[in-house]
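To: structure subgroup
Subject: Chain for Friday's discussion

All,

I'm putting the inputs and outputs inline so they're searchable in the archive.
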Amino acid sequence: MIYQLLALEELLALSESMLSAAGAEDWETLASLEAARRALTESLPAGLTADLPAGLQARARVLIENCLRCDKNLRPLLDTRMSELQVVLRAAQPAI
């Protein structure tokens, strides 16, 4: 398979694993996966799919859309976790 599609497949696998970790409330694994995904994303060239033939560009588009779907589904889980942490932090603050 072409390098660009392999990179996007790996990006999707990391995105799906992040969503799974968040669903399991495994925040340490999520953070580790996010760091790996960020590193992969930063290593990719800006025009990653520009040179692909039309059929492969369609496959790349599907992979990217699936990554975005994972991000969209991850967001509410992260928002819930952030709300929980804010409650904990407020409770831990000393009274003034």
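Points worth raising on Friday:
The chain has a mean pLDDT of 92.
The two ends are 62 Å apart (CA to CA).

D.
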